[in-house]
Amino acid sequence: MPIPTLFFVAFASGVATAMASRRELRVSPRPALLSRGFAAYVLFATLVLVPVSVYFYVFHGDWSLFYLVDVRTVPSAVAMVGFVLEVGVGAVGFAMGAALVRSQREPLAGAAAGAAVLAGILVAWMARDRLAVVGSYAQFSGGFGLVPFVSAPVLPGALLMGTLMLAGLGILVGRILLGARRSG
């Protein structure tokens, strides 16, 4: 998955987690970012979402950034800040989702999550010509040695990482909903 798409996924997953945490958020006077649902989301983001992003950055970095920058020239501290920002984007999504849940506007929260997913798909679709080939920044810039996406190692990685991420999000949301049903 392209890194910009993963930022939209981070936002959408934060909103989805807040929606799943609605029972806790509606009865607790504590700030949303001190809730158990948010703590669970941060664990998901740091143990699942960021490692998926790191995988694409490390193994397919030039491709995952649409060949706009040579990842070998990016200082590791800048990359690390980017991964921290990704968790921050998810936290913003959770906070926004929590505010909408607490004000009884869950359909709007769902629409925001859906819009973020669609925006992530749109970003990848707009860069489809760049994502259709896999290689290094130098190969893309020079127009040589590129491999079609369907026969490149990025395809199995994308399928595996996407599956793991969706499974992790499903487990997170399911566990929060199950916990809310048991406590209620």
From the helix content, strand content and strand pairing, which structural class follows?
mainly alpha
What share of residues are in beta strands? under 5%
Report strand order across the widest sheet: 1-2
> What is the total domain count?
1
- Mean pLDDT metric: 95
Number of strands: 2
Separate helix tally? 8
Summarize the structure.
The protein is mainly α and 184 residues long. It has helices at residues 3-20, 22-27, 36-64, 76-102, 106-126, 128-131, 137-142, 154-183; strands spanning 133-134, 147-148.
Task: Note the topology.
Layout lengths: L2 H18 L1 H6 L8 H29 L11 H27 L3 H21 L1 H4 L1 E2 L2 H6 L4 E2 L5 H30 L1
Antiparallel strand pairs: 1-2
Structure commentary:
With 184 residues, the chain is mainly alpha-helical. It has one domain (3-183). The chain has 8 helices and 2 strands. The chain has helices at 3-20, 22-27, 36-64, 76-102, 106-126, 128-131, 137-142, 154-183, and strands at residues 133-134, 147-148. It has a two-stranded antiparallel ribbon. Helix 3 (36-64) runs antiparallel to helix 8. The radius of gyration is 18 Å and the shape is elongated. The termini are far apart. The model has no long low-confidence stretch (mean pLDDT 95).
